[in-house]
Amino acid sequence: MTTPPGAEGNPSNEPGEPRSGRWSDLGRPPLNATALRRALVRDGGFWTDVELVSRTGSTNSDLVALAADGKAEEGAVLVAEEQDAGRGRLDRQWTAPPRSGLFFSVLLKPVEVPVERWGWLPLLAGVAAATALSRTADVDTALKWPNDLLLTVGGEERKVGGILAERAGNDGVVIGMGINVTLREDELPVPTATSLALAGSTVTDRDPLLRAVLRSLERWYVDWRAAGGDPATSRLQETYAAGCATLGRTVRAELPGDRSLVGEAVAVDGDGRLVLATGEGVQQPIGAGDIVHLRAEGEK
Question: Where is the BPL/LPL catalytic domain (predicted)?
Answer without folding.
Answer: 40-225
